[in-house]
Amino acid sequence: MPKKRHLITTAQASKILRVDVRTVHRLRDRGDLPEALKIAGRTGALLFDEADVLALAEQRSAA
Protein backbone atom coordinates (compact mmCIF):
# COMPACT_ATOMS: atom_id res chain seq x y z
CA MET A 1 0.00 0.00 0.00
CA PRO A 2 1.46 3.42 -0.97
CA LYS A 3 2.55 5.75 1.80
CA LYS A 4 0.01 8.52 2.43
CA ARG A 5 1.44 12.02 2.00
CA HIS A 6 0.57 14.85 4.32
CA LEU A 7 0.28 18.00 2.21
CA ILE A 8 0.73 21.46 3.69
CA THR A 9 0.22 24.98 2.38
CA THR A 10 2.88 27.50 1.47
CA ALA A 11 2.11 29.42 4.67
CA GLN A 12 2.58 26.29 6.77
CA ALA A 13 5.84 25.52 4.97
CA SER A 14 7.07 29.06 5.65
CA LYS A 15 6.43 28.63 9.38
CA ILE A 16 8.29 25.31 9.50
CA LEU A 17 11.22 26.76 7.57
CA ARG A 18 11.05 30.07 9.47
CA VAL A 19 11.13 32.09 6.27
CA ASP A 20 8.78 34.39 4.40
CA VAL A 21 6.21 32.91 2.01
CA ARG A 22 8.09 34.51 -0.89
CA THR A 23 11.20 32.58 0.12
CA VAL A 24 9.24 29.32 -0.08
CA HIS A 25 8.32 30.26 -3.66
CA ARG A 26 11.99 30.99 -4.43
CA LEU A 27 13.04 27.66 -2.92
CA ARG A 28 10.52 25.95 -5.17
CA ASP A 29 11.63 27.92 -8.23
CA ARG A 30 15.28 26.94 -7.58
CA GLY A 31 14.34 23.29 -7.17
CA ASP A 32 15.31 23.13 -3.48
CA LEU A 33 11.73 22.32 -2.44
CA PRO A 34 9.63 20.12 -4.71
CA GLU A 35 6.05 21.16 -5.25
CA ALA A 36 3.66 18.29 -4.45
CA LEU A 37 0.51 19.74 -5.97
CA LYS A 38 -0.81 22.94 -7.53
CA ILE A 39 -4.51 23.56 -7.19
CA ALA A 40 -6.12 24.33 -10.54
CA GLY A 41 -6.67 27.92 -11.55
CA ARG A 42 -4.66 31.00 -12.31
CA THR A 43 -3.97 31.71 -8.64
CA GLY A 44 -4.18 28.12 -7.41
CA ALA A 45 -2.50 27.30 -4.14
CA LEU A 46 0.73 25.36 -3.98
CA LEU A 47 0.88 22.40 -1.65
CA PHE A 48 4.04 20.72 -0.40
CA ASP A 49 4.74 17.32 1.09
CA GLU A 50 5.38 17.92 4.78
CA ALA A 51 8.21 15.35 4.77
CA ASP A 52 10.03 17.35 2.05
CA VAL A 53 9.65 20.57 4.04
CA LEU A 54 10.87 18.95 7.25
CA ALA A 55 13.86 17.44 5.44
CA LEU A 56 14.78 20.83 3.99
CA ALA A 57 14.40 22.48 7.42
CA GLU A 58 16.75 19.90 8.93
CA GLN A 59 19.23 20.33 6.09
CA ARG A 60 19.19 24.12 6.49
CA SER A 61 19.68 23.93 10.27
CA ALA A 62 22.67 21.59 9.84
CA ALA A 63 24.38 23.96 7.40
Description:
With 63 residues, the protein is an alpha+beta fold. It has a single domain (7-62), classed as Arc Repressor Mutant, subunit A (Orthogonal Bundle). Helix content is 49%, strand content 14%. It has three helices and three strands; from the N terminus they run βααββα. The protein has helices spanning 10-17, 21-30, 50-62; strands at 7-9, 37-38, 46-49. Strands 1-3-2 form a three-stranded antiparallel β-sheet. Helix 1 crosses helix 2. The longest helix has 13 residues, at 50-62. It is globular. The model has no long low-confidence stretch (mean pLDDT 92).
Keywords:
single chain, 63 residues, Arc Repressor Mutant, subunit A, three-stranded antiparallel sheet, 3 helices, 3 strands
Give the percentage of residues in beta strands: 5-15%
Number of E-state strands: 3
* Tally of contiguous helical segments: 3
CATH topology: Arc Repressor Mutant, subunit A
CATH class: Mainly Alpha
Which secondary-structure class do the elements indicate?
alpha+beta
Structural domain count:
1
Helix content: 40-55%
Radius of gyration, in angstroms, nearest whole number: 12 Å
Give helix and strand order, one letter per element, not per position.
EHHEEH
Average residue pLDDT? 92
Q: Give the strand line-up of the largest sheet.
A: 1-3-2
Largest sheet: 3 strands, antiparallel
Q: Tell me the span between the first and last alpha carbons.
A: 35 Å
So, CATH architecture? Orthogonal Bundle
| Poorly predicted residue ranges | none
In CATH, what is the homologous superfamily?
Winged helix-like DNA-binding domain superfamily/Winged helix DNA-binding domain
The geometry reads as globular
